Amino acid sequence: MVVGVTTHIGGRASTGDRLELVQRLQRLTTATLHFSDRAAASRGLHRSDLQALQALVTARASGAGALTPGELAQVLVLSPSATTTLVDRLVRAGHVERHHDQEDRRRISLTMTEHAGVEARAMFGPMAAAMVALLDDFDDAEVATISRFLAGATQVVTHAQPSDSRPPPVVEV
């Protein structure tokens, strides 16, 4: 049970309580972005640098192992020139390595260095440990419910499209 969220008939939270939960999730998202920005800045990195490193971690975890600069640009929704600038910055910082394909030397793949992994664990490890400790306050069924909600919320955000509707223009009379 989330603190401050009340249940009603049938164990279901009211619409107001559900909206409060969404607002709490929005506040968590904002706090997470601020933390990431502070952590990145403390190491001379930008938010886009962290996003690039996360994309490389995800590629490795999925079995792909590496990304091409073009694939990274697609994931980050960056132009080719912005991606080149970002990759150059990460290579100079020792966080990313460029590898030429053995069969086609024009093809380049990007991988995260062990140094970047050490830095990431230093930046985010303590917060991750605190989150795990926080989950100790919940039983297995509650953790499963939280996990299911977060997976669903992630899908909603991933597939959401910005609204094309805009407020009507102000007309002076």
Your description of this structure?
The chain is mainly alpha-helical. The protein has a domain of 99 residues: Winged helix-like DNA-binding domain superfamily/Winged helix DNA-binding domain (Arc Repressor Mutant, subunit A), CATH 1.10.10.10. Helices cover 61% and strands 6% of the residues. It is built from six helices and two strands, in the order ααααββαα. The protein has a two-stranded antiparallel ribbon. The longest helix has 27 residues. It is globular, with a radius of gyration of 21 Å. The N and C termini lie far apart (52 Å). The model has no long low-confidence stretch (mean pLDDT 89).
- In DSSP terms, counting alpha (H) and pi (I) runs of 4 or more, how many helices? 6
Physical arrangement of strands within the biggest beta sheet: 1-2
Task: Say which CATH homologous superfamily of the domain at 47-145 is assigned.
Answer: Winged helix-like DNA-binding domain superfamily/Winged helix DNA-binding domain
SS elements, strand count: 2
What would CATH call the architecture of the domain at 47-145? Orthogonal Bundle
Task: Quickly give the structural class.
Answer: mainly alpha
CATH topology of the domain at 47-145: Arc Repressor Mutant, subunit A
Strand content bin:
5-15%
- Secondary-structure element pattern, one letter each: HHHHEEHH
Mean pLDDT: 89
Described by the principal axes of the CA atoms, the overall outline is globular
| Biggest β-sheet description | 2 strands, antiparallel
**Terminal Cα separation, in Å?**
52 Å
Unreliable residue runs: none
Overall CATH class of the domain at 47-145: Mainly Alpha
Radius of gyration: 21 Å
Helix content: 55-70%
